[in-house]
Amino acid sequence: MLSIQTALDQATERLSTSSESAALDAEVLLCLTLQKQRSHLRAWPDKMLDAPQTEAFWAVVAKRQQGQPIAYITGIREFWSRDFKVSPAVLIPRPDTEVLIEHALRLLPINQPCKIIDLGTGSGIISVTLAAERLLSEVTATDISETALAIAQSNAKQHCVDHIQFYISDWFSQVPEGLFDLVVSNPPYIAENNPHLLDGDLRFEPQSALIALDNGLKDIQTLVEQSRSRLHIGGHLLIEHGYNQQDAVQNIFQHFAYKNIQTYIDLSGQPRVTYGQWHS
């Protein structure tokens, strides 16, 4: 039998060659196994694990040693101070996307009704967060994956958000007619030959949500073009993209006659989200 501290020490050693956060991973996985908070590990380091707990713990440690993302093992990832359910059917939420939320909320007065659409919602982190932060909004969320959309619906229910309409749709194709005040999306934007697709968590994430043709710009161009006919005059478009795509994405916005085009940086200081306003 192992104590909590011994289990953590051995797991950290095992994970040290496959994870840059081995000690933290070990704690998270032991909390998952024991269904306890991290404070429990610190309060009871000498408490012994029983045989089933030990077996279950080494099983999840083995998954992490194989490179499986912590978020997929635990089934949870925090975003904008809320826990969201995730699975290998959806992208893992990342802090970079909070930049999109930050600027979307600046565009939407808290006391005014508005219509928002999140295209390619995945786990629903964008649509659910915006709906939760803007209670007077009418939110639409789409995804081409029925499995992903079910996860988004589950997250909406978990966070008591009931003013989102969900559609299985290839971008706008199945969305009922109507105009929006804000269109947002974190679409696929990684080029097919990008070597980072073979690294880290990306190896396990759905390729359809990562990869786009035309050097990663195909879906962005489609969204920018299609959004023109679905935005109110003066409406807003926010799209997340790769750190090295700022100039190309701004050119796409300009080509389709958007105004007031700006690109916002992420938490690492990289260009991450481009904005345009529709005036024509």
UniProtKB/TrEMBL annotation:
Signal peptide: none
Residues in Methyltransferase small domain copies: 108-193
Entry binding sites for S-adenosyl-L-methionine: 120-124, 143, 171, 186
Pfam families to which the protein is assigned, alphabetical: MTS (PF05175), PrmC_N (PF17827)
Keyword Methyltransferase: yes
UniProt entry keywords in alphabetical sequence: Methyltransferase, S-adenosyl-L-methionine, Transferase
EC code: 2.1.1.297
InterPro entries linked to this entry: DNA_methylase_N6_adenine_CS, HemK-like, N5-glutamine_MTase, PrmC_N, RF_methyltr_PrmC, SAM-dependent_MTases_sf, Small_mtfrase_dom
Reactions catalysed, as given in the entry: L-glutaminyl-[peptide chain release factor] + S-adenosyl-L-methionine = N(5)-methyl-L-glutaminyl-[peptide chain release factor] + S-adenosyl-L-homocysteine + H(+)
Domain Release factor glutamine methyltransferase N-terminal: 7-75
A single MF term (Gene Ontology): peptide chain release factor N(5)-glutamine methyltransferase activity
Binding site for substrate: 186-189
GO biological processes: methylation
PANTHER family per the UniProt record, alphabetical: HEMK METHYLTRANSFERASE (PTHR18895), MTRF1L RELEASE FACTOR GLUTAMINE METHYLTRANSFERASE (PTHR18895:SF74)
UniProt family annotation: Belongs to the protein N5-glutamine methyltransferase family. PrmC subfamily.
Known role: Methylates the class 1 translation termination release factors RF1/PrfA and RF2/PrfB on the glutamine residue of the universally conserved GGQ motif.
Database matches in NCBIfam families: hemK_fam, RF_mod_PrmC
Protein name per its UniProtKB record: Release factor glutamine methyltransferase
Originating organism: Crenothrix polyspora
Primary gene name: prmC
